[in-house]
Structures are given as C-alpha cells and as structure tokens.
Write a structure and sequence with these properties.
It is built from 29 helices and 12 strands. A hairpin with a 2-residue loop joins β11 and β12 (656-657). The N and C termini lie far apart (92 Å). Mean pLDDT is 92; it is low at 1-6 and 692-697. Residues 10-345 form the Acyltransferase domain. Pfam families: Acyl_transf_3, SGNH.
C-alpha cells in the first residue's frame, strides 16, 4: 500500500481485508452476504484517504513534477497486476468460453478495461450490474478500477493546492467538498430511474472517494494545529470504533441490489470513515484493534488488490465450465483465487512497486513507458480475441458452422451464386435484406418478409439457402427480445419499444409487398424451460401456457393479431406462422464439451418427450386455427416433425446439434429444415398459381 505521511497504519490493511472478503463472499453466493458488493464502496473511501496521504508531503512543488510523481506511482500500483490479469483472463476465456448471447459483450468490456473505461461499456451494453450477462462476464469487476482511474485524472488537480499553505489547503477542501455535495445530489437524482448509471459512473461515486480525501484533510488540519487524534481518550474512540464497525457490517449485510450507491452505500461509507478516523487513536480497545491488525487480516489486506483482480475471473470461468454450486467447487475456487493473488502480489505487484530500478527511474519516463506497455498489452488482448476460434478447446467454436445459425451465403454446386446481405434502418428498425446475385437463373416466386425476435434471426442460415435456391429477395426485420404476434402480449405489443418495432416493421412490409409475397412470422410462443444461465420450474412453465393469465392473453392476442394482419391479407400477402419448435431444459452449447458436461446447467438433460411438447403446443395451434378462420391466406409451417421425428426430441442429430441453446436453432438445425421450408413455400406458390388460373378462367 502507499505509505501515509505520518507512517503506516496497519488497520487500513485490515479494513481492505474486510472489504475484499465481503465482495468475494457476495460474488460466491449473494445469499451469504446480501450487501457484500458494497465492499467496493469501502475501497473507494480507503483509496481517497490513502492517495491523499501519499501526496500530502509536497510543499510548493512544480505541477509537472507533482503530476509525474502521482501518475508514476499510480501506474506502478495499478497497471502491472491488471495487465497480467486481463491477458491471462483473455487466454482462459478464449479456451473455455464460447461466443453466445451470454458472452457477446465480454470482449469489449475487457478491451476497454486496459484504458480504465470498462464501466462505460458495461453501462452501454449490459446495464444492470446484477444481470446474468454481467455475472458471466470475466471482466465485470474492472468497472470499479475504471471509476478509480477516472478519479485519478481529477485528483491531482483538485489536491495540488494542498501543497501551498493554509489558503491552498482551504481551497482544496472546498473543491472536494463541492464535488462531494454535487455527486451526492446527482446520485440522489438519478438513482431511482437510472440505477445502472448510478452504480457505474464516477459522477455518482465521486462522493465516496472525496469523503476519504476530506477525512484525511480534516485529520491533517487537526494535527497541524497540535490536536493529534492518536492521543485522544480511549473510551470515546472505542465507542466510535464499535459504532462505525456496526454500521459497516450492517450495511454489508443489508444493502440491496439496485439501491447502491444511494441510499444503501451510506452506512458502509459512514462506517469506513469512522474506522479510518477512530482507529488512529492509540488507546482503542485491544480486541477491536486486533480485529483489524492480526496477522491474517494484514496479509489479506496487503494482497487485497490482487485478490479483487483474480477472484472474479476464477469464479466466472468456473461458472462457464464445471460450475460453482457445490461446496467442493467453491473451496477449489477460493484456493485458486488466493494462490493466484499470492503469486501476483509476490511476482508482479511487489517488484514493480519496490524494485530500485523502477523506483529510481525518471517519473515521466515511467509514465510514458507505462502507457506504451498498456497499449501493447491491449493490442495483444485484441489479437488473442481474434484467435479465439483457433485457440478454443470448445467444440462450439471448432465446429462453428454446425453451431452458429448464420449459415453460408453460397451453394457448393453454384459457387458464384451468393445471397448478398445488406443492412438498412427503417424507422429505428434494423432490416437485413438478402438478395441473390450471379445465380444465372430467374426468380421462382415473390419476395419473402420475416418479422420477429432472436428466433427470426436464428433462421439466418435457412433463409440464406432459401434465397439462393428460389432466387427470392428476403427482408428480415428483427429486434432481440421483441416478438411479433407471439400470442403473449407481454412480449410484444404491450411493451412500448416492442410495439413500436412491430408497427414500424409492418408498415414497411405494407409499403414494399405485392400480392403473392409471403410474410413469415417466427417467434418464441411457448415459455422457456431454461435460459442460457437458469432453469425454470415445470409448474411455472405449465402455468405460463395453461394458467388464466396465459389463456386471457392468447384470447386478446388473437383479436389484435387478426386486426393487425387483416390489411396484409386483403392486400393478397400470404401469412405463414411458425408452429412451435421443441424446447429443452438445458442449453446444448453449455453442455457440449468435456469440461462443461458436469455443469449444473446441464443437469436437467438434453431430451424432451414429444408428447409433452405437443401438449404445450396445442393451445398455440388452436389460436392459429381461429386466426386463420378470421383471415384468408393464413397458414402454418411446422418444423417439429423434422426436428423431432420420434417419441423423444433430441438436441442433436447423429452428433450434430439441432439447437444452440434451449430453444434457438443451430447452424445444422437450419440446414436440416431447408428442404421442409422450401417444400412449404413451393406449395404456397402452387396454390397461388392455381388460384390465379381459376380467377383468370
């Protein structure tokens, strides 16, 4: 740790130990210490206090020397261990974590962590700190380092005046005080409506760091006037220490997700400030002092930075592979964490902080070389990310064409014929257009329009082949999480941004489509048995189909869908619904490898009784029938007989995956369905041609 002006305060390492162990306990199992994530708030207070102590020795310095001293110390303190951790984590992630929705923002977070900006990426992409994507991102914990590093850009400018006598000290305190009040006011304003912004940003965390700075400045001011707090009376200090510890522990035990840093970080911050102040009194009761200054606490505090760096990647990588649920696996995770932290402290942190060659080097040179090394490490990180398909030990990455649904844009027998795609934006809706080129054969039929959520996107491989084999132009409107005509109003038109998506997509289809064109409406119309990170109770699944709310929702949706699609039907556009596909209780891609097959995510199995799927589908198919009775030109394509030809539905087909996760198709599943969908479209075209011929007669 940085040594304060007035000596080494051992209890600060004890406080760091308490903070890091609280964070580790929360990340291992949030039920152990529900507010343990506020240990980070304690770190912020300590950082503000300690970094002030480390810079308080200067008298009338030159600004350039001052900045050189400050930033050389910060780079030596933070960068080496962080660079090693990020690079090692990137290699382990490339080996063991396949690309999926659950991991699709991880690389970006890690990349910007090199520059101390990962908190911005997390806010923009994953949002809520307590969401599943964050829990499976091995770089999530770097958000707090980003906040500290951004604070360090401001700190020397606000603290510089401290070195210029009484007026300078008053000015510095005023600056930090104003910043603290402004930050508190801002976090109070945004915390209710924008909890993710309140959680991740320096603007809402500045008050915690500034509180540590101001505490140091107040104590230093008392010393300068001959009031040495170390000589204060024992009983008031002991009572203050006890109350501060109680406030801190209560805050760590009771803080709530979505209520930090305001108001639920107030108690931990107040407790940390109290401990930093009262434990300076030499006569504090010995049991309290021992609690923070025993040998174990001091050691954990000294390695707390490395512990914080390493615990999260270890936990996340175990969640992706063998799991982190059993007592034995948790013990292994803790042992790995402490071993890696000890090695990092001994061979990375300590040499760069204490080696004479580094300490005696010109400070601006240390800063310059440090920046170059950070950029080089970031470049190496990006290279590792690009090499992931070659490095990965996962069959999902090695057999990407089978697993991922994007599919080929060409046909082996016609290599010059390609389904060239381009993306347009239509009224804030992403539209991907597939247009066959160089195929040397005329189009066989009208155009195909597709509207839907991620399940529409998951038909990409099949749709490319349809474009190639029929020479149709295909227009695909998708927005993740927004179904269209799903028979579940809470998943489409009752959600404002999804209702906007559906209306905009439909309006564009009406403007483009001609009689004889087809609109295909795939969607998740059954409740999931499992998501990529969690399984749902069977009774919850059945209630979501047969419960009163579900029945009423389908009835309402039938009416809304009929009214919505009527103009298309009257325009002569044929509407094709997708009959529900099989669903599974475990995500296949998380269970495909030797290192993940024992993961608890796979315990519910990778097969389903077809009769169970048929029973769940029955109400949806009945709704289709009633909608078709209202409108002409409505029909249903059913992929179930192809994907599940027997009494038991399997996630794979002779060892090749049919599904990527519990309900989205794989690349191979797309190819298996191509003949069926082509035949269905052919029957529609034939029926349309027959109708046209009869009308002509």
């Amino acid at each position: 740790m940085d040594e304060p002006r007035h000596g080494y305060f051992p209890y600060i390492d004890g406080m760091r130990a308490l903070a890091v162990l609280s964070v580790i306990a929360y990340h291992m199992d949030s039920s152990w210490l529900p507010g343990g994530f506020t240990g980070v708030d304690v770190f912020f207070v300590i950082s503000g206090f300690v970094v002030s102590a480390s810079m308080a020795r200067f008298d009338h310095p030159r600004l350039l020397d001052y900045l050189g001293h400050f930033y050389s110390r910060r780079i030596r303190r933070i960068a080496p261990a962080l660079m090693v951790c990020l690079l090692a984590t990137s290699v382990a992630s490339a080996l063991f974590i396949p690309q999926a929705w659950l991991s699709d923002t991880s690389n970006a977070v890690g990349r910007w962590a090199f520059l101390g900006l990962s908190n911005f990426v997390l806010l923009r992409t994953d949002g809520d700190y307590f969401s599943p994507k964050v829990e499976f991102n091995p770089y999530t914990h770097t958000w707090s380092l980003g906040v500290e590093e951004q604070f360090y850009l401001l700190f020397p400018l606000l603290f510089f005046a401290w070195a210029f006598g009484r007026r300078g000290r008053a000015a510095s305190m005023a600056l930090f005080g104003a910043g603290l009040l402004a930050s508190l006011a801002y976090v109070f304003w945004v915390s209710k409506d924008q909890p993710a912004l309140a959680f991740y940003m320096l603007t809402t965390r500045f008050w915690e760091l500034a509180a540590g700075v101001l505490l140091f400045q107040i104590l230093a001011g008392l010393r300068s006037r001959g009031n040495d707090i170390a000589q204060a009376s024992a009983w008031p200090a002991t009572i203050g220490t006890t109350l501060s510890l109680a406030a801190l522990v209560y805050g760590l035990a009771t803080a709530r997700a979505g209520h930090a840093p305001y108001p639920d970080a107030l108690l931990p911050v107040a407790g940390a400030l109290g401990l930093l102040g009262f434990l300076q009194v030499a006569a504090v009761a010995r049991p309290l002092r021992w609690l923070f200054e025993n040998r174990t606490a001091l050691y954990i505090g000294r390695i707390s930075y490395s512990l914080y760096l390493w615990h999260w990647p270890v936990f996340v990588l175990m969640r992706w592979t063998v799991g982190l649920e059993s007592a034995a696996l948790r013990v292994i995770a803790l042992m790995l964490t402490f071993a890696l932290a000890a090695l990092s402290y001994r061979f990375v942190e300590t040499p760069f902080r204490r080696a004479a060659v580094v300490r005696n080097a010109p400070r601006l040179a240390v800063v310059g070389i440090g920046v170059v090394v950070i950029v080089v490490c970031m470049t190496g990180y990006r290279k590792i990310g690009r090499m992931q398909p070659e490095l990965s030990l996962s069959v999902v990455a090695r057999q990407a064409e089978d697993w991922y649904p994007q599919g080929r844009e060409t046909r082996p027998e016609l290599p010059d014929c390609a389904a060239v795609g381009h993306v347009e934006t239509v009224a804030n809706v992403e539209l991907r257009v597939l247009s066959p080129t160089s195929c040397k054969q005329p189009s066989q039929a009208g155009r195909l329009f597709v509207i839907g959520d991620s399940h529409a996107s998951a038909y990409a491989g099949m749709l490319k082949q349809v474009a190639l084999r029929t020479q149709r132009d295909i227009y695909i409107y998708t927005r993740a999480g927004c179904s269209f005509a799903s028979l579940q109003p809470w998943r489409d038109y009752q959600v404002p941004h999804c209702q906007e998506f559906g209306a905009s997509a439909l309006a564009d289809v009406k403007a483009r489509a001609r009689p004889g064109d087809v609109i295909f409406l795939p969607a998740l119309r059954l409740p999931r048995f499992a998501d990529q990170w969690i399984s749902f109770k069977p009774e919850e699944v059945r209630d979501a189909v047969f419960g009163e709310t579900a029945v009423v929702g389908r009835q309402e949706s039938e009416r809304v869908i009929g009214e919505t699609l009527r103009p298309l039907a009257e325009q002569g556009i044929r509407v094709v619904f997708e009959a529900p596909k099989p669903l599974f209780r475990s995500p296949p891609y998380r269970c495909a490898d030797w290192f993940s097959q024992s993961n608890p995510a796979c315990r519910d199995g990778l097969t389903m009784e077809r009769s169970e799927i048929e029973a769940l589908r029955a109400p949806v198919l009945a709704s289709y029938g009633r909608i078709a009775a209202q409108l002409g030109g409505v029909s249903v394509w059913d992929p179930l007989p192809v994907l599940c030809p027997g009494k038991v539905c399997h996630v794979s087909d002779h060892g090749r995956p049919l599904f990527f996760d519990g309900d989205h198709l794989s690349g191979h599943g797309n190819q298996v369905l191509v003949p069926s969908f082509l035949a269905y479209l052919g029957s529609l075209d034939h029926a349309g041609a027959s109708s046209a011929a009869r009308a002509a007669q």
